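Box S2. Input/output pair 1.
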Amino acid sequence: MYAALVCNLAIVSVKFMVYGVSRSSAMLAETIHSLADSLDQILLLLGESRGRRPPDADNPLGDGMETYFWSFIVAIMVLFLGGGASLYQGIGHKLFPVMNESPTLSLAALGIAAVLKASRLR
């Protein structure tokens, strides 16, 4: 999970830089998506560490269920943050269309993101 977090943070920075230069709404949506992925990784790490706590007086069976709770929170975030950002961008661009002059930077950022995600799997 740590490797995934580092890769996601690198992808966020690349996509955000490209958005800063190109002002592409697609890159903004991609940046938000990757930022949500990074936050998801942090919450999953939190759940994993809290789930490993040993039993104590308050929780005699341990805190193993915390892992499932934080996974559930991540699923809700993916649905609402990802879906909400996409909906917002989609409606905004239907109402006020903007043409992207050169998609080269955006495509390069997506290529870099694909390479980083593939390296993470390795």
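Box S3. Input/output pair 2.
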Amino acid sequence: MRIALALALACAFVAQAVHAARRAQLHAAIAYHAQSANVGWATDRTSSREARVEALRQCAHPKCEVVATVKAGCVALARDAKRHRAEKGVTREEAEAKALRRCGTGCEIAAWTCTR
């Protein structure tokens, strides 16, 4: 009984460590085109390049640009008619609050993404 419990605890610990290591390796990105207001994002990609390419693909405008990338965290894009700002955070709430604060009055969240 003790051996089974010890094995179960060890397996849970290993699974948690693997999940944490995997999360530290994941990338996300947001792409944006201000004139059309097109937005695209990618989450949980294995490389920064893969996240950027997917965000641009989803943005679906030839002049979209990647405005933010993040590894193991969150990013949010705030915008209004004249300006935009993307900011990173540990949580969605933190990224959104930073983006709204730095974008200014009248801005709203256009997109956010977090790695697992």
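Caption for Box S3: The chain is about 40% helix and 35% strand. Residues 8-12, 17-23 have pLDDT under 50 and may be disordered.
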